[in-house]
Amino acid sequence: MNAPENFSPFSLSAWSAQQLGRIELALSGWVACPQASPAPAGLVEAMRYAVLDGGKRLRPLLVLAACEAVHGDAQVALRPACAVELIHAYSLVHDDMPCMDNDVLRRGKPTVHVQFGEAQALLAGDALQALAFELLTPEDGAMVPATQAHLCRLLAQASGFQGMAGGQAIDLASVGLPLTSAQLHEMHRLKTGALLQASVMMGAACGTASPAALNALRDYGAAIGLAFQVVDDVLDVTADAATLGKTAGKDAAQDKPTFVSLMGLDASQAYAQQLLAQALASLAASGLKNTHALQALADMLVNRHH
Amino acid sequence: MNAPENFSPFSLSAWSAQQLGRIELALSGWVACPQASPAPAGLVEAMRYAVLDGGKRLRPLLVLAACEAVHGDAQVALRPACAVELIHAYSLVHDDMPCMDNDVLRRGKPTVHVQFGEAQALLAGDALQALAFELLTPEDGAMVPATQAHLCRLLAQASGFQGMAGGQAIDLASVGLPLTSAQLHEMHRLKTGALLQASVMMGAACGTASPAALNALRDYGAAIGLAFQVVDDVLDVTADAATLGKTAGKDAAQDKPTFVSLMGLDASQAYAQQLLAQALASLAASGLKNTHALQALADMLVNRHH
Q: Which of A150, B71, B173, B305 has most Cβ atoms within 10 angstroms of its Cβ?
């Protein structure tokens, strides 16, 4: 157990290891073919392949960290933590398909459509999205209905046409086009930022926080959401496929606008650090005491190497 | 206005016309690019194309009819009515894609991927699924949180791997295979039946009904869900493309198992009538008085010609 928070430095690796254990166990239990269910084994197999044994679990960790910051119920937060990961996983499955990015490598493994065929990949993605909302609406009273509804609302808005899917559509339409800085920001605010920010707000929804604290968490989520993409663009040109676990250099190869192509490499790296400082300032302004994990996650995602 | 229900025969066409007006207006308003939104116009255009100006709206009508049967709030029921139609619409978009059924004609129009490209079709389907859950979770207090959570649960379960997506995966895996009658029933219970049954239960969730009445509605939903597919299989061999608004005879061409291939045409037609009788018997046993619309919809869907 941790010592009192004022005397012991926070260890992200120890905290993450503990949380990741809970997350992996929960995901494996929820993305499963129940004994009683007649669901087709092949579909569930593709869903499990898409979700398990890979991924940094950044979104679930953000949910759990935000839940801690508002002294929420960690057991309740496990459902939104896994739900947001299912949405992320489905988006990767669909995004990798031949009609989208046509990627064959993901997390060091063949992508889902390579492994299971395109039709199964399409269905697995669809079913993972539905399962996310199933996780958020348990029948057993584990979560009060108001929290269930609130979580579904946050997740649906962040995933849909005014969130992730909308950002992907802008991305699709902008290949080879010279985007302005504002357009590039807007695309990433929707495509990646919305779900990262929603992760923070879903964690916060598992406890209680003042409107001012919620606003500060929203700002934190916006800053790390953007920083995440800036760093992704930087790593796309500085890292190799072995480190990255996916095809490197493909943005440039596909003539996609990126922060690096717009601002240059050095300015992009400086921008990421500036966003990190903004995120930490938002946490400091939140009035919340227990933000060690949120701070450390922001630092990790900006200073990661893959 | 209708005369008192004991003295005036129920007119499905008059009732449907009134409900369809409400449904179309609501769908058009909800699947729209808000002025304030930065959502990409192309994606919303594809979503609107997929949802508007077509379709029998059977599922929304079932929601509204079930709501009437339990004396629920018709205004509240409009949200689940449209949400279930969005799920149906997304499933058609994805099902028509080249990696699935590769269909080019739907409701007499080019399918979404033919019109907008595969990538946009994939995203439009994904965004329609998310929007369905957004519709069910309004922030404005129009629907109490417990109803929101209940509706999300019903819809997610009926759409996912133990519902529609699971049925589609069985369908995918069973092309060219000799299914038993039990396997064919199971496939269609999931693929089509789950969402039709969920439509009934979502309408019922907008009012109050005894457990016995809810069980009777569940039986009604199961019977019409199955009947719908039996009739679909019959029409696939008896109707032509002009009447059907989609490619006729494609099940046989793709060597898909159907009720007709398993039971023969006459027995399939008789089976549909038997399921209609079961559905009506369930309504009679429900103890609910205001089931005219549910009765008429069951009759219509079994005795339809397209």
A: A150
Name the domain count of chain A.
1
Rg of chain A (C-alpha set): 19
Is residue A78 assigned to a domain?
A: yes
Kindly determine whether residue B123 and residue A42, on different chains, have CB atoms separated by under 8 Å: no
- For B272, the domain range is 12-303
User: Does residue B7 belong to any structural domain of this protein?
Assistant: no
Q: Is the pLDDT of residue A201 over 50?
A: yes
What would the pLDDT profile of B266-297 be if each residue is shown by its tens digit?
Answer: 999 999 999 999 999 999 999 999 999 999 99
pLDDT confidence bin for B2, thresholds 50/70/90:
very low
How far does B115 lie from chain A, in Å, by closest CA?
A: 14
- Report the mean per-residue pLDDT for chain B: 91
A55-59, A173-177, B290-294: range with lowest mean pLDDT: A173-177
Nearest to A156 among B44, B123, B134 (CB): B134
Stated pTM of the model = 0.94
